[in-house]
Amino acid sequence: MADNATHRYISSFFLVGIPGLQDFHCWIGIPVCLLFALALLGNSVIIITIKLEPSLHQPMYFFLCMLAVNDMALASSMAPKMLGIFWMDAHWIDFDTCLTQLYFIHTFCIIESSLLVAMAFDRYVAICIPLRYTTILTTPMVIKMGLVGMTRAILMVLPCPLLIKRLPCYTKYVINHAYCEHMAVVKLASANTLINRVYGISVALSVMVWDLGLIAASYTKILQAVFRLSSQNARSKALGTCAAHVCTILVSYTPALFSFLTHRIGKKVPPSIHIIFASLYLLVPPAVNPLVYGVKTKQIRDRVAGLFFPSKKISGN
């Protein structure tokens, strides 16, 4: 009876923001806003550049376009609410809205990981079996790989909000976080959450181990192929095509891994540090990825320079 009486009693949650740093929320909102704006602007430029430049209509850049769209979606799923908390004291969020935000954030994170695997495979084929590159990575194959990654993410994350909704009793409503995160919401339930915890950690571990394993395997093969090249110039050129992707992997996985570990085993880590890192791993990659590819990829760099500085392009020619 007690469980029935309290079932779904909490209709809204209160997002604290960053515990212990509430007095600085207005200032913390500035870098969040800048990162969000940079993510939207930078990824839009990448998409427009690839669309306008016929020489960039290649599998590598199609994957980059998918990554840019996903990055904008990821940043948009959490940054507006964070800014609402920091600047307008809009701390309350409806139960179902919270679950929706939770679902999309984790879905976009897994899609991002899938795209990094696809991009690693693209580099593997380009460097290790270049003669078969155009026959393996056709446009339909690129689309199928993108759809498989998206479907995997949708199906893996879907049970998370469904399992949360099945929990019979919510008597706590304060989420010590800046957005709705799976474990932060699960901890509020006054019920047995073993299934939720096991499933959550299983998804996180399987995605990280599987995807990082595939990326590591791809780059092991790539390095073996590169070091078999006799020309130093050919080695440098081959490794140069991977530089942007490696930077993106480091930017995406390093804060994500730290956040994952501190949330589950870092009991002595202050909550504010954990939440800052949890926010950074969602905001920094979408903002930094366009800069990395813009700087490291000559075709994109030249095309963007031509778009914004046409006179310089003419004089350069």
Automatic annotation (TrEMBL):
Compartmental location: Cell membrane; Membrane
Identify its membrane topology class. Multi-pass membrane protein
Main subcellular localization, coarse class?
A: membrane
Signal peptide coordinates: none
Q: G-protein coupled receptors family 1 profile domain: from which residue to which, for each copy?
A: 42-293
The record's section on InterPro entries has:
GPCR_Rhodpsn (IPR000276), GPCR_Rhodpsn_7TM (IPR017452), Olfact_rcpt (IPR000725), OR51/52/56-like (IPR050402)
Alphabetized, the UniProt keywords read:
Cell membrane, G-protein coupled receptor, Membrane, Olfaction, Receptor, Sensory transduction, Transducer, Transmembrane, Transmembrane helix
Query: Which superkingdom does the taxonomy of this entry point to?
Result: Eukaryota
Query: Which residue windows are transmembrane per the record?
Result: 27-48, 60-79, 99-121, 142-164, 198-217, 238-261, 273-293
Task of the protein: Putative odorant or sperm cell receptor.
Q: Which family does it belong to?
A: Belongs to the G-protein coupled receptor 1 family.
What protein name applies here?
Olfactory receptor
Q: Which organism is it from?
A: Felis catus (Cat)
Q: What gene is behind this protein?
A: LOC101090290
